[in-house]
Amino acid sequence: MPTSELASDHLREALVDRLRSAIGDALVGSHLVAGVDVWVRVRADAWRKAGLALRDQLGMDYFCYLSAIDWMPSPFGRSEDDPTAEATERDDTIRQGYAGGETRFQLLARVVSSSTHVGINIKADVSEDDLTVESWVPVYTGANWHERETWEMFGINFAGHPDLRHMYLPTEFEGFPLRKDFPLLARLVKPWPGIADVEPMPGVSGDDEGGE
């Protein structure tokens, strides 16, 4: 492995250790890929505290993005599958990916140090019984629209957000389109890539199309 990658690994390991020192047992999981990236998982009640530690103690001064993940397998199956194919047994197991997890919904954000160019992916389990975490807007101003979109599309609330309102959907819209159990009617009516009804050529009846 190149020396630069080894150095990066040491740096990432140190970042995880420093975050653990800052927030204690609120850091509940981590996963490091040597020379590539690192993921950490924190408790939802420590979401803002972790953000502050990342910014002020770990030098993560650049906010990349924030969103959510719904790990539940879609109850509608895979809409891109051939609708005429024989159905296969569905696997309803929830698997949360890197750094583990215990809930269907997780928050995911990424921040980077502009001096070292090394970043951290941070996740938090969000309970369906209390889909609320503290806003990162006081920590990273750029999280504003990301939190609005996550609230609108997943139904996760951000306590302390200064302007939590719809960005894309009508105010009266019901449901959360990026949840796996939200029905995409266009896919249910005509699954992708769809089965097209082809009209016969002028002067040719439908019965004549099949040949002999």
From TrEMBL:
Record keywords, A-Z: Transport
SUPFAM superfamilies per record: Nqo5-like
Name under which the protein is recorded: Unannotated protein
Family classification: Belongs to the complex I 30 kDa subunit family.
InterPro entries with a match to the protein in the record: NADH_quin_OxRdtase_su_C/D-like, NADH_UbQ_OxRdtase_30kDa_su, NADH_UbQ_OxRdtase_CS
Residue intervals of the NADH:ubiquinone oxidoreductase 30kDa subunit domain: 40-184
Gene3D superfamilies: NADH:ubiquinone oxidoreductase, 30kDa subunit
Record keyword Kinase present: no
Lineage start: unclassified sequences, metagenomes, ecological metagenomes
Transmembrane segments: none
GO-annotated molecular function: NADH dehydrogenase (ubiquinone) activity; oxidoreductase activity, acting on NAD(P)H
